[in-house]
Amino acid sequence: SRTAVDPQALLITVAPTGAETAKADFPQLPTTLEELVRTAQECEAAGAGMIHVHIRDDDHLPTLDLGRLTDTVQALREGTDLVVQLSTGGSVHDPLEDRLKVLDAQPDSCSLTMGTTNFGDDVFSNPWPFVCDLYQLSQERRVVPEFELFDLGQVAALHRLLDRYGLPYGGSVHCDLVMGVPGGMPGTADALVAAVAALPEQVTSWSATGIGRTTLPVALAALSKGGHLRVGMEDVLTIRKGEPVESNRQLVERAVALGEIAQKRPMTPAETRSLLGIAN
Ligand code: KMH
Ligand code: ZN
Fold first, then answer.
1. I need a labelling partner for 184 at 20 to 30 A (CA). Which of 153, 193, 194, 204 fits?
2. pLDDT per position in the chain (280 positions), as tens?
C-alpha cells in the first residue's frame, strides 16, 4: 500500500530538453549527457522531484538510441535521486516500434500519451492499439507510466484504458495535462477545470504544463485546483515576454516560488516515489 503523501508537498517535474528545439537556436538547451546530468542536479537542488527525459545524438538531434538511453538512465541515477522518466513520445518522426523499445532502458517511469494529436504542422501519432501495447508493456516491465493528456478526448481514452487493462504497475495513476499545444486543448483555466473534472476516479495525482505563453495561466490554475507542476525548456523558452530562459533551474525556481505562494513546499524525490508507487 502507498504511504500517504503530505498534501502540502508539490511535485515539480522538470522537462529540460524535449525534441522540438534546435541546439543551434537555443544553446542553453541541455543536449549532451554532461549538460543533462548537470541540469538535473541543479534542478534537484532547486526542488524538482522527477525529470522527464528526451535525449539527443552527437549532432544534438533527437534520438531514441537504446544504448544512449540506458547510459542516460544510469548517469541520472548515479548523479541524482530524481525519479527518471523517459519520454516514449520521442519526436514526431520516431517510429512506434522504437518508442516501445524505450522501456528496454528500464527507467522508473515512462510517458504514455493517450491519443493522436495535431502538433503544430505535424502529427504526434498515438493510435489506440499502440497506446494499449505500450501500457501493457509498462505493466510487464514494471515501469510506472505518466499519462500525457493533450486533449479532453484523451481523458476519455484513459477511462477506457484503465477499465480494460486495470491499474498501472505500482498501483498509482499519475497524469500530466499538456496544454496549449497548437492542435490540443487550450492552455486556459477553463480547459484545465474541465479536464480535471473529467479525470477517471482511479487517478491519484496529476500535474499540468502549459506550452509557451500558456505556462503561467496553466501553472496558476493547476495550483488552485490542487495539482502538481511540470516546467522546463521542453515546454517554454521565455521566462517572460521577450526574455529567453537562462536555465531549467530558473523555471524550477519559479515553480517553487509559485508553490510557496500557495503554501506548498517542493516534494522530495523519495516522496515522489511514494506518490507514484515507484519501488525505492
Ligand atoms: N515531442 C512530442 C512530439 C512525450 O514526451 O511523451 C511528444 C512528447 C510527449 O514530448
Ligand atoms: Zn516530452
1. 204
2. 456 889 999 999 999 999 999 999 999 999 999 999 999 999 999 999 999 999 999 999 999 999 999 999 999 999 999 999 999 999 999 999 999 999 999 999 999 999 999 999 999 999 999 999 999 999 999 999 999 999 999 999 999 999 999 999 999 999 999 999 999 999 999 999 999 999 999 999 999 999 999 999 999 999 999 999 999 999 999 999 999 999 999 999 999 999 999 999 999 999 999 999 998 7
- Ligand 2: centre distance to CA 187 (Å): 17
Which grid coordinates belong to 115?
491519443
Domains belonging to the chain, first-starting first, are 9-276 (3.20.20.70)
The ligand that comes nearest to the alpha carbon of residue 131 is 1
Report d(CA 75, CA 84) in Å as an integer.
10
Contact 128, 154 (CB under 8 A): no
Task: Kindly give the pairing relationship between strand 238-240 and strand 243-244.
Answer: antiparallel
Q: Which atom of ligand 1 is nearest to the CA of 54?
A: 5
Cα–Cα distance, 231 to 48 (Å, whole number)? 9
Cell numbers standing for residue 75: 548517469
Q: Give the pocket of ligand 1 (CB within 6 Å).
A: 18-19, 87-89, 91-92, 111, 113, 119, 124, 148
Round to whole Å and give the CA distance between 175 and 214.
19
